[in-house]
Amino acid sequence: MEYFSIVFQEVYKILFLLVPVLVSVAMIVWLDRRVWAFVQKRQGPNVVGPFGLLQSLADALKYIFKEIIIPSSSNKIIFILAPIVTMTLALIAWAVIPFSATQVLADINVGILYLFAVSSLGVYGIIMGGWASNSKYPFLGAIRSAAQMVSYEVSIGVIIINVLLCVGSLNLNDIVIAQQNMWFVIPLFPMFVIFFISALAETNRPPFDLPEAEAELVAGYQTEYSGMMYAMFWLGEYANILLMCAMGAILFLGGWMSPIDVYPFTLVPGAIWLILKILLLFILFALVKAIVPRYRYDQLMRLGWKVFLPLSLTWVVLTASYLFYFNLLPVN
Amino acid sequence: MIAHAIFFYTFSLIAVVSAIMVTASKNTVHSVFFLILDFISISCLFIMIGAEFLGMIMLIVYVGAVAVLFLFVVMMLNVAQQKNQWFSGQATSKHIPVGLIISTLIFFEIIIVIGGWKYKPEIFDINNSLAYTSVSNTHSLGQILYTDYIHVFQISGMILLVAMVGAIVLTFRQRSGVKKQSYIKQISRERAEGVEVLEVQSNKGVKIDD
């Protein structure tokens, strides 16, 4: 009986985390379209609900009522599994995100590694979908995204090493607390820029949305998907974007920490600060989508391997030497 | 403890079954997917015994990078053709004896390792194992790897580097006659190099070669 009560408590906690995440994913799609529209001097979705806030819900309803078409020549099991994998991986990563010193579902020792692992698994949803569709455009999109995501993961990993050198722990709460005096965005600003651009590439956002480049590949790996399965891909993608924003906020912007450590600001709960920082990063993501043209594939690869990787590796050496020379290495 | 056992047997069952399916499934891409499932359940087992760092690194390196490249290559192969040649169970197949020899070797290696635990229990001293110390997994690994075993660690890194360089050298080919974008050239171009103003004489025209 005791065991069941523990399980029940955990399920309650998980629901309390996942339902807001899903709702905020719907809202963030709306925000994305609104920001995009404002940059282009349009109105964007503004009809359904106040300010068009319910637009995403209307879209989701539309997707639910549409027929799910499974191509007859596709590999059916993998075809159905692909959106589920994308969605699940995008959601399970939220387990380790700390919303305050105590509000975290799983405060594990290797939190940042877990985040990194889950985000690197995200490529499977895309590859599975692209391959199982048994069609040219999805396959091309999947191959592109596999290469792209693996390449940019490398530089994200090296950037994470930079932050870890300054923290001395893989725990996400420790990373946040280490930024008490100064957010890492200040000493590691170039790394923050590279992290931001790599996050764009990792989540297949414009200007790196080559896996789904609609001008060349129809809709890339999503071409054969319809109805709710398409919507799941779409939700998973936006949940991943939010996750990357959260990761950026935790690694560089001080996570749930208030920007100034003085009285009125410290009253605000940590979750609010984290959400504000995620929103700030997300609006940057949306702005980039509106103002930057798409990269060519060879340019993308060059940027990942020949620019970002050497730069971030050099920065690792720099950070390590600086910390070592001034005896600032976090040893415990 | 019961929950622990349930999870352990679930993960090990998945690991064993998917390991069998890697070799048994007809479709090569399916084999790779089963391999990935195997990796994931093995890393879950690692996490269960308290080796969380190893489990996560397994996920990142094997599942996140190596298996993606596997999949990448296997998807490019013509699966339908391969099915006929390799998997139709030909009696004259030369792969079977080689595979048998290798698997017997691995089997005896595992026997030796397990025998070591069984007959020399001091090798597996439970008080020294990572799970029972207060230091976190990552810290103790780092302390061992970068002090006692630094040379081995460096040598293994060098071997990997050599392998990488070797692979690049083997596949690298300089293609001639391909237009390639040179960023430095493109940025450092001046107007004077690109534009030339000519007086065009009537009925003569200008030569606009190269």
Could you provide a short overview of the structure?
The complex is a heterodimer of chains A (332) and B (210). Chain A has 332 residues and is an all-alpha fold.
Topology:
The complex is a heterodimer of chains A (332) and B (210).
Chain A: H1 2-39, H2 55-65, H3 76-92, H4 111-121, H5 123-132, H6 136-167, H7 172-177, H8 189-202, H9 214-217, H10 227-252, H11 263-267, H12 270-291, H13 297-325
Helix pairs in contact in A: 1-10, 1-12, 2-10, 3-5, 3-10, 5-6, 6-8, 6-13, 8-10, 10-12
Chain B: H1 2-24, H2 28-48, H3 52-76, H4 79-86, H5 95-119, H6 137-148, H7 150-171, H8 183-187, H9 191-194
Number of helices of chain A: 13
Structural class of chain B: mainly alpha
Distance between the termini of chain B: 79 Å
* Uncertain regions spanning at least 5 consecutive residues of chain B: none
Task: Categorize the overall geometry of chain B.
Answer: elongated
How much β-strand is present in the residues of chain B?
A: under 5%
CATH superfamily of the largest domain in chain B: NADH-ubiquinone/plastoquinone oxidoreductase chain 6, subunit NuoJ
- Number of individual domains of chain A: 1
CATH level 3 topology of the largest domain in chain B: Four Helix Bundle (Hemerythrin (Met), subunit A)
State the major sheet of chain A: none
Tell me the span between the first and last alpha carbons of chain A: 41 Å
> How many discrete domains of chain B?
3
Rg value of chain A: 20 Å
**Beta strands of chain B, count:** 0
What is the CATH-assigned architecture of the largest domain in chain B?
Answer: Up-down Bundle
- Quickly give the structural class of chain A: mainly alpha
Order of helices and strands of chain A: HHHHHHHHHHHHH
Fraction of helical residues of chain A: 55-70%
Q: How many separate helices of chain B? A: 9
